[in-house]
Specification:
Strand content of chain A: over 45%
Number of strands of chain B: 11
Distance between the termini of chain A: 36 Å
Number of helices of chain B: 0
Helix content of chain B: under 10%
Oligomer: heterodimer
Shape of chain A: globular
Number of helices of chain A: 0
Radius of gyration of chain B: 13 Å
Largest sheet of chain A: 7 strands, mixed
Chain lengths: 112, 112
């Protein structure tokens, strides 16, 4: 199985600051069609996961452009610019290139 | 709009079979794939399996011997069946459309 390693496991930031979360995979996530199926999700407290970013850098529907994703092959980053209170929760990266699809262990974002 | 809603028994006895239903609206099951993902209490996300728009299925190899996913397109419903349940199968079970749209989840507790 592809292991997704997220860092840091938690972080505490003040409103308005910017943060980055790293996600590294044990295998390249480039599929045979040339696309990279690496996604970012946010699970707010008590809520279902919500997709933020798909295929590395594409913003999900209704997601503010404060969120951005970069990376390639095995190394990916989610950046949140100008953090807002509503951004708190657990962020997961997920890969849907290789079976079984797998998730990172999560990064918990707290607001100072 | 796109909606998914999980339903099920809530409480299942050890060694028994779990049956969950995901009822969808706003899209056709013949056009989009539906995944099942679960989350043990206080832990991360685990991908269980998918039924593709064409009706084929893929499963997490760790669960494959116990798991079955099927659908009734006329009723817009996707079904999850998993046998030989143990306490470690306790958690919230989510269905989602392509990781983009998620249901609210249903809590399954395995206990005698």
């Amino acid at each position: 199985d592809v292991v997704m390693t997220q860092t840091p496991p938690s972080l505490s930031v003040a409103i308005g600051q910017s943060v980055s979360i790293s996600c590294k995979s044990s295998q390249s996530l480039v599929y045979s069609d040339g696309k990279t199926y690496l996604h970012w999700l946010l699970q707010s407290p008590g809520r279902s996961p919500k997709r933020l970013i798909y295929q590395v850098s594409n913003l999900g529907s209704g997601v503010p452009d404060r969120f951005s994703g970069t990376g390639s092959q095995k190394d990916f980053t989610l950046k949140i610019s100008r953090v807002e209170a509503e951004d708190l929760g657990v962020y997961y990266c997920a890969q849907t290139t290789h079976f079984p699809f797998t998730f990172g262990s999560g990064t918990k974002l707290e607001i100072k | 709009q796109v909606q998914l809603k999980e339903s099920g028994p809530g409480l299942v006895q050890p060694s028994q079979t779990l049956s969950l239903t995901c009822t969808v609206s706003g899209f056709s099951l013949t056009s989009y794939n539906v995944h099942w993902v679960r989350q043990p209490p206080g832990k991360g996300l685990e991908w269980m399996g998918v039924i593709w728009s064409g009706g084929n299925t893929d499963y997490n190899s760790a669960l494959k011997p116990r798991l079955s996913i099927s659908r009734d397109t006329s009723k817009s419903q996707v079904f999850l069946t998993m046998n030989s349940l143990q306490t470690e199968d306790t958690g919230i079970y989510y269905c989602n459309r392509g990781f983009a749209y998620w249901g609210q989840g249903t809590l399954v507790t395995v206990s005698s």
